[in-house]
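Lecture notes, continued. The same structure-token format from the folding unit now serves as the input rather than the output. Read the line below as a description of shape only.
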């Protein structure tokens, strides 16, 4: 067994495999900050060890995925916006919670925008729900309060997909998620497909429809 892998999550990620999109994960390990290149390290605003460890873990995953696409040892520094800088012709996204780092990558031929988020499963605090959910989404959450965390992760994944493409800032209210239809719409007119995994972690992948 690979110590850096959550077997249940690995199986769940395989179940949402999409043509042309690679997704991977890693259990964040104590030495993962050591995977950061000098350029990546300098681009990270946070000096906190936990944040740097998580960012290193996400880049280990992303580099493994890029290697499967033929890219060798690719540095992935952060742009001033916070988004990672991908090799030419590639779109991708990184995320981490306290335990897990995830990454998704694709060629631009497959999609122009890709976003991923991971959250520990569990209810979203009520005060956060008020900030995150639109009136229509609250009707869904009223019937199934457990979906709050999924909704939150979906909006973050959508933001990570769209912000590098359109250079826009989106508030939670600027994104409407329809979980039954696997769709997200942004206030500025983008429609995305959202795929969701729920294990001990919620993972949401968003891509342009
Ligand atoms: C992008 C953002 C949503 C990430 O959320 P987070 O909970 O802090 O952290 P996550 O673990 O989910 O994701 C972190 C990764 O997001 C990526 N990221 C950060 N800013 C990004 C951006 N503008 N576009 C795309 N990806 C971005 C980075 O790869 C980062 O990993 P790194 O620090 O190792 O490079 C948040 O940092 C942000 O910029 N928020 C402002 C916009 C917002 O919150 N709007 C309301 C939500 S829709």
């Amino acid at each position: 067994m690979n110590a850096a892998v959550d077997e249940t999550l690995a199986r769940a990620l395989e179940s949402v495999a999409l043509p042309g999109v690679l997704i991977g994960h890693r259990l964040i390990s104590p030495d993962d900050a050591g995977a950061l290149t000098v350029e990546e390290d300098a681009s990270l605003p946070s000096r906190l060890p936990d944040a740097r460890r998580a960012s290193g873990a996400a880049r280990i995953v992303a580099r493994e995925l890029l290697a499967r696409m033929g890219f060798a040892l690719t540095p992935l520094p952060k742009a001033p916006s916070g988004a990672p800088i991908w090799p030419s012709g590639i779109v991708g996204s990184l995320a981490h919670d306290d335990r897990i780092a995830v990454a998704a990558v694709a060629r631009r031929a497959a999609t122009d925008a890709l976003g991923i988020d991971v959250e520990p499963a569990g209810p979203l605090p009520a005060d956060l729900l008020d900030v995150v959910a639109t009136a229509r989404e609250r009707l869904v959450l009223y019937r199934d309060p457990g979906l709050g965390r999924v909704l939150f992760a979906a909006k973050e994944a959508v933001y990570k997909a769209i912000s590098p493409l359109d250079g826009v800032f989106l508030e939670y209210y600027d994104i409407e998620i329809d979980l039954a239809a696997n769709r997200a719409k942004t206030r500025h007119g983008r429609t995305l497909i959202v795929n969701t995994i729920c294990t001990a972690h919620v993972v949401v992948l968003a891509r342009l429809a």
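Point for the exam: The mean pLDDT is 95.
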